[in-house]
């Protein structure tokens, strides 16, 4: 999630010898790892204990990267790891909270039971960060009629000040299957 601290000592020495500095691309490396875990989630299971430790790192970027990796690995992280990851919905950093919601709506949400995702998306809808609310609404839209228990929160989201949240909520409410489902 971040460059080793010894880079700070090594880079001035490297400059003396006209060598390029070390490191500097943690986001690109994170994205490569996330894609690999998403493609081969069962191979990522061995990384789960280390990723769980990173959820409590003082650096929010490290916590974010851990959430991305756990989300990419998917349901094979297990229920205890899922719980620990979703505990980050109360993180002080907006982006960490958003990334929990994003990871669970972006990486194979159909593989999770809806009753496990609904509390995550509902928490996201209550978040002060507009992007977390948008991602939560996107996840509820993906759940379709399985999100029916969240209808009151979705109706409230249809009046959200953020246009993206408002539009996604309205889309869920206007969906054809919703009208058919409501008639039953």
Report on the structure:
With 184 residues, the protein is mostly helical. Helix content is 67%, strand content 0%. It has twelve helices and no strands. Helix 4 packs antiparallel against helix 5 (60-73), helix 7 (94-106) runs antiparallel to helix 8 and helix 9 (130-143) packs parallel to helix 11 (163-174). It is elongated. The N and C termini lie far apart (50 Å).
* Radius of gyration based on Cα positions: 19 Å
Mean pLDDT: 86
Assembly form of the protein = single chain
Number of strands: 0
Structural class determined from secondary elements: mainly alpha
Q: Tell me about the biggest sheet?
A: none
Helix content: 55-70%
- SSE order, as H and E? HHHHHHHHHHHH
Kindly, what is the distance between the CA atoms of the first and last residues, rounded to a whole number of angstroms?
A: 50 Å
Q: Roughly what fraction of the amino acids lie in strands? A: under 5%
- Please give the count of helices: 12
Q: Can you tell me the residue ranges where pLDDT is under 50 for at least 5 consecutive residues?
A: none
Gross morphology: elongated
């Amino acid at each position: 999630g971040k460059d080793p601290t010894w880079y700070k000592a090594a880079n001035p020495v490297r400059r003396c010898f006209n060598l390029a500095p070390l490191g500097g691309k943690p986001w690109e490396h994170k994205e490569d790892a996330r894609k690999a875990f998403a493609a081969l989630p069962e191979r990522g299971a061995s990384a789960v204990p280390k990723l769980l430790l990173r959820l409590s790192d003082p650096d929010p970027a490290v916590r974010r990267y851990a959430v991305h990796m756990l989300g990419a690995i998917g349901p094979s992280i297990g229920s205890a790891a899922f719980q620990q990851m979703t505990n980050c919905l109360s993180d002080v950093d907006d982006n960490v909270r958003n990334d929990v919601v994003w990871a669970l709506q972006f990486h194979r949400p159909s593989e999770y039971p809806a009753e496990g995702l609904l509390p995550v998306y509902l928490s996201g809808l209550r978040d002060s960060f507009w992007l977390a609310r948008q991602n939560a609404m996107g996840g509820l839209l993906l759940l379709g009629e399985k999100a029916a228990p969240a209808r009151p929160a979705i109706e409230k989201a249809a009046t959200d000040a953020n246009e993206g949240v408002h539009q996604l909520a309205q889309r869920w409410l206007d969906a054809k299957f919703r009208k058919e489902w409501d008639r039953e």
